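> @MW can you paste both from yesterday?
MW: sure, first one:
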Amino acid sequence: MKQLKKKMLLVFVLLLSAITALSGCSSSGAGGYPEKTIKIIVPWGAGGDTDVINRIAAKYLEEELGGKITIQNIGGGSGSIGAQEAIGAEPDGYTLLAGHDSIGISKLMGQTDFDYFALEPVSLLTSAPQLIATHVDNPWDSMQDVVDQLKQEPESISFGASIGSTSHMVPLGIQDAAGVKFNIVGYDGTAKRTQALLGKHLDFGATTIPAAQEYMKANQLKILGIATEKRTAALPDVPTLKEQGIDFTNATNRGIFAPKGTPEEIIKTLSDAIKKVAENPEFIKEMENMGVELRYMDHEKYSKHLQGDVDYLGGLLKRQGVID
């Protein structure tokens, strides 16, 4: 009887060990994730709209994941330096990139040797329409004024942009649609470009509502157009470019990327958490107040969207003679 009890106890111990081992296997990857602080690289300087949006999003993402998130600003190279840092990071889910369309544009323009797919697209989260901004003292009051001058005097108006990034597509798109030519001047990052507009070192610059709203309220910048299909509720008095005869729309689409090779379980955990953030009424309200649209896409849809983005932007750059 004692021998039988010992055998039964041994069988129980072995079964328990097996169950524990199987449980450990099934929970590997994302089971305990996150177990330490997650770092999100923002590949632009502090104070720009990408930085502001992602710092707000990170607060909500911390709640969904139950872990701490820090933001690291690594500016330069129209976003490519920070992106390169993320590409080379350990694919364990603890280094992520807050990326946008600039990743694809830089590759198309030959500024980098990588595009979106050197990383793992996790989710698209927000979309911020581009604004056409100038100093409030400047003489232009509509995009028609701008087009009329440029047709008479090509390149007589400067337009600041991060060369090889999303803001660069704005003057190129206006040129493409209106048959005009700006003097495009390189300013890396929305924050620097906005300061150049305020100091009248530039005539125009592409910006977004999050970056420009305090200067609009202070009557320092005026917005001549917004690159959306319809007017936005955040700026109901600002006409679209289309209303002014310029058939061009453009927005900065911001999402999260992970290093290539990050486990699928972690990608799914992150994507599911980002979806919950996108559905959070408080986050939605904060974004609406900033004029930012929620545009969540999961890993698969975001990957397809990015390929379409590359195809469209490649066509624009070729038509404008930027690339062959």
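MW: second:
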Amino acid sequence: MALKSKLLLIILDGVPYRNWRRLFGNLEGWVQSGAARVWKMRAVLPSTSACCYASIHTGVSPQQHGIHSNEVRHKVDFPDLFSEITKAGGKTGAVTHSYWSEFFNRYPFDLVEDMEYDEPGGPITHGRFHTMTGYNLKNQMTPSDVDLFATLTMLCKRHGIDYGILHTCTLDSMGHRFHHECEEMDHACAGMDAMLAAFLPRWLEAGYEVIVTADHGQSDRGHHGGAGEDQQDFALYYFGKAKGPKPDVLLDQLQLAPTILKRMGVAIPDTMTAKPFLS
């Protein structure tokens, strides 16, 4: 079964709204040229990474899916993007932190068996994961983002995935360490933007719609998890032909999963009750 469209979701972990709009010149240039659009989106509560990951893919709140913190993890028992797209005949790919594999394929994560897999019968058809084991403020344990972008591009080229997600924690880790009003964070965001710039045209030329966004924001003191615009709000950039809301509309993170399914022509399960924001 041919899907309506192909789509890549790029999650840059822990980038507050103001950093997107002032430091990502490449993305903002696409918006300025009219080739992309941008909105503000608000994360669920708690605005903790694992909680947001599960909500991004299921379209339900942490209070429903049961991922209440980074330490409370299990296989999520709700329909999600991987499960619904593969049921519709699509191929999925993930280049992400291992939490995504735990939530949407199997728990717990096996370092040998689950670091890389190709499973035509599974919800994640092609998975490439990293764990950040040993992470602390002095050693971030994050892969190079250009390696992750290249790996996703490989899955597109080699396996013809219909839906792919890339997730990187580099900027979240930098924010925790250096906070946000500093030279280090300015250069980290600019570096990420430059690495992304090399791959965006390739994905678009290959026929993918692309969404670039975050899972949550981060305060000036490098914190997230709680309420407030600094911790919850981030930008969402869309590269594609669909119609969307006016630029000043605040989007809800729970709208993301049903929006992606609608763009791909996949039936939206009853559990995803938020309204899609793209036609």
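> thanks! Strands lie at 6-12, 37-42, 92-97, 116-118, 126-130, 163-168, 208-213, 233-239, 250-252.
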